[in-house]
Amino acid sequence: MTVKHNKVSAELRVAEKANSMSTINSYSLPVPKEKLQRIDRTSSPAHVGKLRNAIDFIVAENTPVLAAADGIVTFVKDDSHIGGPSIEYWHDSNFIVIQHPNGEYSRYDHLAHRSAVVRTGQYIKRGQVIASVGMTGFTYLPHLHFQVFIFTGNNIWTDFDTLAITEFLT
User: Fold this and answer.
1) In whole angstroms, how far apart are CA 39 and each of 22, 30, 99?
2) Contact status, residue 97 vs residue 130, Cβ threshold 8 Å
3) Which residue ranges of the chain lie beneath pLDDT 50?
4) Can you give the pLDDT at residue 12?
5) What is d(CA 131, CA 113) in angstroms, rounded to the nearest whole number?
6) d(C-alpha 28, C-alpha 127), whole Å
7) DSSP state string for 75-115
8) How far is the C-alpha of 166 from the C-alpha of 14, rounded, in Å?
9) What domains, with CATH codes, occur in the chain?
10) Which of 24, 138, 141, 149 is spaced 20 to 30 Å from 82 by Cα?
11) Distance (Å, rounded) from C-alpha 60 to C-alpha 141?
């Protein structure tokens, strides 16, 4: 019986890991540690399905947003000035996407209007300021929505999956 139980346990661990893959790269906090009020991994109604591994960093508006790892900026949207606690604001979030080694990307959401200080194609370094926290998109309080993801198909808007981040470099 014990051998069978251990085999089942091992299979369950493999299945759990496949359903919630972790990052290969290491990432730093995407906001200054001294500005961080708390980290929230569970209370957002948006953090389900493909976004289940997203993390909210609760900070004040205008807190600097830092690149969590070296990479190349692949997308910048910072023209929105609206947001609120309703799904109707989903597409109004300002955000930046950075490509990292090993096919991983990081995304930084709810940025302040016109706060991006990087541009598409720019190489950035870990810890570099890339924008400021705002209240754009579907949000109920000032915070940075952060996720690391991989692409799973050809459509950049729908074919992705977030990766679990178990710890941040300090």
Assistant:
1) 18, 11, 23
2) no
3) 1-18
4) 36
5) 9
6) 8
7) EEE-----EESSGGGGGG--EEEEE-GGG-EEEEESBPTT-
8) 17
9) 2-163 (2.70.70.10)
10) 149
11) 9
